[in-house]
Structure prediction request, 104 residues.
Amino acid sequence: MIRMQRPGISSLQDTGRKGLQHLGIGVSGAMDQFAARVANAALANDLQAAVIEFTLIGAELHIQKPQWFVITGANCQPSADGLPLPMCKPFFLEAGQVIVLKNT
Prediction:
């Protein structure tokens, strides 16, 4: 679980609704489909699983439950408790830690 202390501009996104355009339903989904798939692959998730997508401004996330994370896409200078986090590589955080994503 994650508590969004400062959500920035964020949303939950998956790979979209393909094949329904004839019904007037747009594909939508993550803006950076490649980054979403890389994140899911790095965590051995289904490649179409939902991800949290951030855009334009930074965010601050309070970790409520120990878990694995991957940050992909644009470099947002991610850190946890002031220490840099890797891009495109899984990392583990404990409950109580705070992820900060900066606007670059």
Notes: The helical segments are 33-42. The longest strand covers residues 2-6. The chain has a mean pLDDT of 92. Residues 20 and 61 are 34 Å apart (CA to CA).
